Amino acid sequence: MDTESLKISVIGEIDSRSHEFAELSLKIHANPELGFQEVKAAAWLTQYLEENDFSIERVICELPTAFRGSYGVGKPVIALLAEYDALPDLGHACGHNIIAACAVGAGVAAKLAIDQFGGSIVVIGTPAEELYGGKATMIDRGAFNDVDIAMMVHAGTYDTATIQVLACQHLEVEFFGKAAHAAGQPEAGINALEALMQSFAAINSLRQHIKDKARIHGIITDGGEAPNIVPAHSAGSFIVRAEEDAYLDELKERVLSCFVGAATASGARLEYRWGEVRYAPMRNNLTLARLFSQNMQSLGRQIKLFEPNHTFGSTDMGNVSQVVPGIHPFVAIAPIEVANHSPQFAAAAASEAGIRGLTDAAKALAMTVVDLTADSEIVSQVKQEFQQQNG
Ligand SMILES: [Zn+2]
Ligand SMILES: [Zn+2]
User: Fold this and answer.
1) Lesser CB count within 10 Å: N end or C end of the chain?
2) 86 CA from centroid of ligand 1 (Å)
3) How far is the CA of 334 from the centre of ligand 2 (A)?
Protein backbone atom coordinates (compact mmCIF):
# COMPACT_ATOMS: atom_id res chain seq x y z
CA MET A 1 0.00 0.00 0.00
CA ASP A 2 1.38 3.46 -0.80
CA THR A 3 1.66 6.27 1.73
CA GLU A 4 -1.52 8.07 0.67
CA SER A 5 -3.68 4.93 0.79
CA LEU A 6 -2.21 4.06 4.16
CA LYS A 7 -3.09 7.52 5.47
CA ILE A 8 -6.67 6.97 4.34
CA SER A 9 -6.72 3.68 6.26
CA VAL A 10 -5.31 5.41 9.35
CA ILE A 11 -8.05 8.05 9.16
CA GLY A 12 -10.68 5.32 8.79
CA GLU A 13 -9.26 3.47 11.78
CA ILE A 14 -9.50 6.57 13.98
CA ASP A 15 -12.99 7.44 12.75
CA SER A 16 -14.25 3.96 13.51
CA ARG A 17 -12.80 4.08 17.03
CA SER A 18 -13.35 7.74 17.84
CA HIS A 19 -16.04 6.86 20.39
CA GLU A 20 -13.45 4.77 22.29
CA PHE A 21 -10.96 7.65 22.38
CA ALA A 22 -13.71 10.08 23.42
CA GLU A 23 -14.74 7.71 26.20
CA LEU A 24 -11.14 7.47 27.48
CA SER A 25 -10.77 11.24 27.36
CA LEU A 26 -14.05 11.93 29.15
CA LYS A 27 -13.38 9.29 31.81
CA ILE A 28 -10.02 10.91 32.65
CA HIS A 29 -11.68 14.34 32.57
CA ALA A 30 -14.34 13.22 35.04
CA ASN A 31 -11.70 11.79 37.39
CA PRO A 32 -9.02 14.48 37.66
CA GLU A 33 -5.85 13.36 39.43
CA LEU A 34 -2.90 15.54 40.44
CA GLY A 35 0.68 15.00 39.33
CA PHE A 36 2.21 11.64 40.33
CA GLN A 37 -1.19 10.50 41.61
CA GLU A 38 -2.69 9.67 38.19
CA VAL A 39 -3.42 6.07 39.15
CA LYS A 40 -6.75 5.70 37.36
CA ALA A 41 -5.65 7.44 34.18
CA ALA A 42 -2.49 5.34 33.91
CA ALA A 43 -4.53 2.16 34.51
CA TRP A 44 -7.14 3.00 31.86
CA LEU A 45 -4.60 4.05 29.25
CA THR A 46 -2.36 1.01 29.71
CA GLN A 47 -5.37 -1.30 29.69
CA TYR A 48 -6.56 0.13 26.40
CA LEU A 49 -3.13 -0.18 24.82
CA GLU A 50 -2.78 -3.73 26.10
CA GLU A 51 -6.15 -4.70 24.60
CA ASN A 52 -4.79 -3.36 21.32
CA ASP A 53 -1.64 -5.50 21.16
CA PHE A 54 0.84 -3.10 22.78
CA SER A 55 3.29 -4.63 25.25
CA ILE A 56 3.10 -2.65 28.43
CA GLU A 57 5.66 -1.71 31.06
CA ARG A 58 4.05 -0.15 34.10
CA VAL A 59 5.81 1.91 36.79
CA ILE A 60 8.79 2.90 34.65
CA CYS A 61 11.59 5.22 35.83
CA GLU A 62 10.55 4.42 39.41
CA LEU A 63 7.45 6.55 38.90
CA PRO A 64 4.25 4.71 39.84
CA THR A 65 2.10 6.44 37.20
CA ALA A 66 4.59 6.45 34.31
CA PHE A 67 4.31 3.76 31.66
CA ARG A 68 5.43 2.65 28.26
CA GLY A 69 3.45 0.75 25.64
CA SER A 70 5.39 -0.58 22.64
CA TYR A 71 4.39 -1.99 19.30
CA GLY A 72 6.78 -3.22 16.62
CA VAL A 73 10.54 -3.71 16.70
CA GLY A 74 13.56 -1.79 15.52
CA LYS A 75 14.12 1.68 14.14
CA PRO A 76 12.87 4.28 13.96
CA VAL A 77 11.47 4.36 17.50
CA ILE A 78 8.74 6.98 17.41
CA ALA A 79 7.37 8.08 20.77
CA LEU A 80 3.92 9.55 21.28
CA LEU A 81 3.70 11.21 24.67
CA ALA A 82 0.67 11.16 26.92
CA GLU A 83 0.12 13.62 29.78
CA TYR A 84 -2.78 13.03 32.16
CA ASP A 85 -2.31 15.15 35.28
CA ALA A 86 -4.90 17.70 36.36
CA LEU A 87 -4.70 21.02 38.21
CA PRO A 88 -5.60 21.62 41.87
CA ASP A 89 -9.27 22.70 42.19
CA LEU A 90 -9.66 23.29 38.42
CA GLY A 91 -9.56 19.66 37.22
CA HIS A 92 -8.58 19.20 33.59
CA ALA A 93 -8.26 22.92 32.86
CA CYS A 94 -5.16 22.22 30.75
CA GLY A 95 -6.91 19.49 28.75
CA HIS A 96 -4.37 16.75 29.48
CA ASN A 97 -7.19 14.21 29.15
CA ILE A 98 -7.15 15.09 25.43
CA ILE A 99 -3.36 14.73 25.19
CA ALA A 100 -3.62 11.26 26.72
CA ALA A 101 -6.46 9.97 24.54
CA CYS A 102 -4.84 11.52 21.47
CA ALA A 103 -1.50 9.76 22.07
CA VAL A 104 -3.19 6.42 22.67
CA GLY A 105 -5.53 6.85 19.68
CA ALA A 106 -2.70 7.84 17.36
CA GLY A 107 -0.61 4.94 18.65
CA VAL A 108 -3.30 2.37 17.97
CA ALA A 109 -3.93 3.73 14.45
CA ALA A 110 -0.18 3.97 13.74
CA LYS A 111 0.06 0.18 14.10
CA LEU A 112 -1.00 0.08 10.43
CA ALA A 113 2.14 2.00 9.47
CA ILE A 114 4.39 -0.22 11.60
CA ASP A 115 2.85 -3.38 10.10
CA GLN A 116 3.50 -2.04 6.62
CA PHE A 117 6.89 -0.34 6.91
CA GLY A 118 8.48 -1.61 10.16
CA GLY A 119 9.92 0.43 13.00
CA SER A 120 8.32 0.84 16.40
CA ILE A 121 5.82 3.04 18.06
CA VAL A 122 6.01 3.68 21.80
CA VAL A 123 3.32 5.46 23.76
CA ILE A 124 5.05 6.90 26.81
CA GLY A 125 2.91 7.90 29.76
CA THR A 126 4.54 10.98 31.31
CA PRO A 127 3.02 12.01 34.65
CA ALA A 128 3.10 15.30 36.53
CA GLU A 129 3.68 17.82 33.74
CA GLU A 130 2.11 20.74 35.58
CA LEU A 131 4.17 21.18 38.71
CA TYR A 132 6.90 18.61 38.88
CA GLY A 133 8.26 18.33 35.32
CA GLY A 134 7.87 14.55 35.23
CA LYS A 135 9.49 14.29 31.80
CA ALA A 136 12.72 15.84 33.10
CA THR A 137 12.95 13.09 35.71
CA MET A 138 12.15 10.49 33.06
CA ILE A 139 14.92 11.84 30.80
CA ASP A 140 17.41 11.53 33.68
CA ARG A 141 16.27 7.96 34.26
CA GLY A 142 16.72 6.91 30.64
CA ALA A 143 13.14 6.85 29.32
CA PHE A 144 14.18 8.49 26.04
CA ASN A 145 17.51 6.73 25.48
CA ASP A 146 16.27 4.58 22.60
CA VAL A 147 13.76 7.11 21.22
CA ASP A 148 14.42 8.69 17.80
CA ILE A 149 11.51 11.13 17.64
CA ALA A 150 8.98 12.35 20.24
CA MET A 151 5.63 13.96 19.50
CA MET A 152 2.55 15.04 21.41
CA VAL A 153 -0.35 17.40 20.81
CA HIS A 154 -1.72 19.81 23.42
CA ALA A 155 -5.22 21.27 23.36
CA GLY A 156 -5.45 25.05 23.01
CA THR A 157 -7.16 27.91 21.25
CA TYR A 158 -5.04 27.94 18.08
CA ASP A 159 -4.01 25.33 15.56
CA THR A 160 -0.25 25.71 15.49
CA ALA A 161 2.56 23.27 14.80
CA THR A 162 5.29 25.03 16.77
CA ILE A 163 5.32 26.85 20.09
CA GLN A 164 7.43 29.30 21.98
CA VAL A 165 7.76 28.18 25.57
CA LEU A 166 9.73 29.71 28.37
CA ALA A 167 12.48 28.13 30.39
CA CYS A 168 11.50 28.23 34.04
CA GLN A 169 12.34 27.21 37.55
CA HIS A 170 10.38 27.20 40.80
CA LEU A 171 11.58 28.94 43.94
CA GLU A 172 10.36 28.21 47.46
CA VAL A 173 11.14 30.83 50.10
CA GLU A 174 10.65 31.13 53.85
CA PHE A 175 11.31 33.98 56.26
CA PHE A 176 11.89 33.38 59.95
CA GLY A 177 11.17 36.31 62.27
CA LYS A 178 10.11 36.58 65.89
CA ALA A 179 6.61 36.43 67.36
CA ALA A 180 5.37 39.12 69.72
CA HIS A 181 2.09 40.78 70.70
CA ALA A 182 1.35 42.96 67.68
CA ALA A 183 -0.11 45.81 69.80
CA GLY A 184 1.33 45.23 73.27
CA GLN A 185 4.95 44.75 72.37
CA PRO A 186 5.48 45.20 68.61
CA GLU A 187 9.04 46.38 69.17
CA ALA A 188 9.96 42.87 70.36
CA GLY A 189 8.86 41.23 67.10
CA ILE A 190 10.49 40.58 63.75
CA ASN A 191 7.82 40.48 61.08
CA ALA A 192 8.34 37.62 58.62
CA LEU A 193 5.24 38.57 56.61
CA GLU A 194 6.55 42.11 56.04
CA ALA A 195 9.74 40.57 54.68
CA LEU A 196 7.73 38.58 52.17
CA MET A 197 5.63 41.62 51.21
CA GLN A 198 8.78 43.68 50.69
CA SER A 199 10.04 40.89 48.43
CA PHE A 200 6.89 41.20 46.32
CA ALA A 201 7.39 44.98 46.12
CA ALA A 202 11.01 44.55 45.06
CA ILE A 203 10.03 42.00 42.42
CA ASN A 204 7.34 44.35 41.13
CA SER A 205 10.00 47.04 40.72
CA LEU A 206 12.37 44.63 39.04
CA ARG A 207 9.64 43.56 36.62
CA GLN A 208 9.67 46.97 34.93
CA HIS A 209 13.21 46.38 33.75
CA ILE A 210 13.34 42.83 32.54
CA LYS A 211 13.13 41.41 29.03
CA ASP A 212 9.77 41.24 27.32
CA LYS A 213 8.78 37.62 27.70
CA ALA A 214 10.35 36.99 31.09
CA ARG A 215 7.89 36.31 33.91
CA ILE A 216 8.06 36.30 37.69
CA HIS A 217 5.00 35.31 39.68
CA GLY A 218 4.23 33.89 43.07
CA ILE A 219 1.85 33.28 45.94
CA ILE A 220 2.01 33.51 49.73
CA THR A 221 1.57 30.08 51.29
CA ASP A 222 2.02 31.18 54.92
CA GLY A 223 1.25 34.71 56.02
CA GLY A 224 1.03 34.31 59.78
CA GLU A 225 -1.31 32.95 62.42
CA ALA A 226 -3.44 35.81 63.71
CA PRO A 227 -3.55 39.59 63.33
CA ASN A 228 -2.54 40.15 66.95
CA ILE A 229 0.67 38.11 66.61
CA VAL A 230 3.67 39.49 64.75
CA PRO A 231 4.19 36.72 62.15
CA ALA A 232 7.25 34.68 63.09
CA HIS A 233 7.13 32.72 59.87
CA SER A 234 6.10 33.36 56.28
CA ALA A 235 6.46 31.32 53.12
CA GLY A 236 5.92 31.78 49.41
CA SER A 237 6.13 29.85 46.20
CA PHE A 238 7.42 31.54 43.03
CA ILE A 239 8.20 30.77 39.39
CA VAL A 240 10.83 32.60 37.33
CA ARG A 241 10.63 32.27 33.53
CA ALA A 242 12.66 33.51 30.59
CA GLU A 243 12.97 32.88 26.89
CA GLU A 244 16.57 31.69 27.00
CA ASP A 245 18.44 29.60 29.50
CA ALA A 246 21.20 32.18 29.93
CA TYR A 247 18.74 34.96 30.74
CA LEU A 248 16.92 32.70 33.18
CA ASP A 249 20.22 32.28 35.08
CA GLU A 250 20.66 36.04 35.21
CA LEU A 251 17.06 36.68 36.24
CA LYS A 252 17.20 34.06 39.00
CA GLU A 253 20.06 35.99 40.62
CA ARG A 254 18.15 39.27 40.44
CA VAL A 255 14.98 37.72 41.87
CA LEU A 256 16.93 36.18 44.69
CA SER A 257 18.40 39.60 45.50
CA CYS A 258 14.86 40.86 46.12
CA PHE A 259 14.44 38.31 48.91
CA VAL A 260 17.92 38.86 50.32
CA GLY A 261 17.31 42.60 50.40
CA ALA A 262 13.99 42.13 52.19
CA ALA A 263 15.67 39.88 54.75
CA THR A 264 18.26 42.55 55.45
CA ALA A 265 15.65 45.29 55.73
CA SER A 266 13.33 43.34 58.02
CA GLY A 267 15.83 41.42 60.09
CA ALA A 268 14.06 38.16 59.25
CA ARG A 269 16.18 35.20 58.24
CA LEU A 270 15.73 33.91 54.68
CA GLU A 271 15.77 30.29 53.60
CA TYR A 272 15.20 29.39 49.96
CA ARG A 273 15.26 26.40 47.69
CA TRP A 274 15.24 26.34 43.89
CA GLY A 275 13.08 23.59 42.36
CA GLU A 276 14.95 20.42 41.45
CA VAL A 277 13.51 20.41 37.97
CA ARG A 278 14.19 23.16 35.50
CA TYR A 279 11.90 23.39 32.47
CA ALA A 280 13.85 23.95 29.26
CA PRO A 281 12.76 26.09 26.29
CA MET A 282 11.21 24.25 23.34
CA ARG A 283 13.40 23.32 20.40
CA ASN A 284 10.81 22.91 17.63
CA ASN A 285 11.84 20.47 14.92
CA LEU A 286 10.59 22.19 11.77
CA THR A 287 10.86 19.11 9.56
CA LEU A 288 8.44 17.34 11.89
CA ALA A 289 6.30 20.45 12.30
CA ARG A 290 5.89 20.77 8.52
CA LEU A 291 4.82 17.13 8.17
CA PHE A 292 2.32 17.51 11.00
CA SER A 293 0.98 20.76 9.47
CA GLN A 294 0.49 19.19 6.06
CA ASN A 295 -1.42 16.31 7.63
CA MET A 296 -3.60 18.64 9.69
CA GLN A 297 -4.28 20.76 6.60
CA SER A 298 -5.32 17.68 4.66
CA LEU A 299 -8.00 17.23 7.34
CA GLY A 300 -9.26 20.76 6.70
CA ARG A 301 -7.62 22.43 9.70
CA GLN A 302 -6.14 25.89 9.03
CA ILE A 303 -3.03 25.17 11.06
CA LYS A 304 -0.10 27.57 11.03
CA LEU A 305 3.54 26.59 11.27
CA PHE A 306 4.08 29.62 13.55
CA GLU A 307 1.30 31.44 15.36
CA PRO A 308 2.69 34.75 16.63
CA ASN A 309 -0.36 35.40 18.81
CA HIS A 310 -0.06 32.13 20.59
CA THR A 311 1.33 32.42 24.10
CA PHE A 312 2.20 29.61 26.41
CA GLY A 313 3.96 29.14 29.71
CA SER A 314 6.43 26.33 30.04
CA THR A 315 6.35 22.60 29.46
CA ASP A 316 8.60 19.68 30.30
CA MET A 317 8.26 18.71 26.61
CA GLY A 318 10.85 21.47 26.19
CA ASN A 319 13.29 19.25 28.08
CA VAL A 320 12.44 16.30 25.82
CA SER A 321 12.99 18.48 22.72
CA GLN A 322 16.54 19.17 23.92
CA VAL A 323 17.45 15.46 23.90
CA VAL A 324 15.46 14.08 20.94
CA PRO A 325 13.84 15.81 17.94
CA GLY A 326 10.28 16.68 18.87
CA ILE A 327 7.15 18.71 18.35
CA HIS A 328 4.43 19.96 20.68
CA PRO A 329 1.71 21.35 18.39
CA PHE A 330 -1.56 22.81 19.64
CA VAL A 331 -5.01 21.88 18.41
CA ALA A 332 -7.80 24.40 18.91
CA ILE A 333 -10.70 23.21 21.06
CA ALA A 334 -12.02 26.61 22.21
CA PRO A 335 -12.25 30.23 20.98
CA ILE A 336 -9.15 32.39 21.50
CA GLU A 337 -10.69 34.33 24.38
CA VAL A 338 -10.87 31.20 26.52
CA ALA A 339 -7.87 31.15 28.85
CA ASN A 340 -5.88 28.01 29.49
CA HIS A 341 -6.00 26.98 33.19
CA SER A 342 -9.53 28.38 33.60
CA PRO A 343 -12.87 26.69 34.35
CA GLN A 344 -13.96 27.56 30.79
CA PHE A 345 -11.02 25.63 29.38
CA ALA A 346 -11.83 22.68 31.62
CA ALA A 347 -15.34 22.68 30.11
CA ALA A 348 -13.90 22.85 26.58
CA ALA A 349 -11.74 19.81 27.32
CA ALA A 350 -14.93 17.76 27.68
CA SER A 351 -16.87 19.42 24.83
CA GLU A 352 -17.74 18.32 21.30
CA ALA A 353 -15.03 20.67 19.99
CA GLY A 354 -12.63 18.94 22.37
CA ILE A 355 -13.45 15.55 20.91
CA ARG A 356 -13.10 16.92 17.35
CA GLY A 357 -9.70 18.34 18.27
CA LEU A 358 -8.67 15.04 19.82
CA THR A 359 -9.71 13.07 16.75
CA ASP A 360 -8.06 15.41 14.24
CA ALA A 361 -4.84 15.59 16.26
CA ALA A 362 -4.72 11.79 16.60
CA LYS A 363 -5.19 11.44 12.84
CA ALA A 364 -2.46 13.95 12.04
CA LEU A 365 -0.06 12.33 14.52
CA ALA A 366 -0.69 8.85 13.10
CA MET A 367 -0.35 10.19 9.53
CA THR A 368 2.99 11.73 10.53
CA VAL A 369 4.07 8.30 11.78
CA VAL A 370 3.15 7.00 8.31
CA ASP A 371 5.42 9.66 6.73
CA LEU A 372 8.27 8.82 9.06
CA THR A 373 8.13 5.03 8.78
CA ALA A 374 7.60 5.10 4.99
CA ASP A 375 10.74 7.09 4.24
CA SER A 376 13.97 6.73 6.19
CA GLU A 377 15.26 9.79 4.34
CA ILE A 378 12.75 11.97 6.22
CA VAL A 379 13.90 10.57 9.56
CA SER A 380 17.47 11.45 8.57
CA GLN A 381 16.37 15.01 7.75
CA VAL A 382 14.66 15.30 11.12
CA LYS A 383 17.81 14.14 12.88
CA GLN A 384 20.06 16.33 10.77
CA GLU A 385 18.04 19.40 11.70
CA PHE A 386 18.26 18.42 15.36
CA GLN A 387 22.04 18.03 15.16
CA GLN A 388 22.38 21.41 13.49
CA GLN A 389 20.31 23.09 16.19
CA ASN A 390 22.54 21.37 18.70
CA GLY A 391 25.71 22.75 17.17
ZN1 LIG B 1 -1.06 23.49 32.08
ZN1 LIG C 1 -0.78 21.45 29.70
Assistant:
1) C
2) 8
3) 14
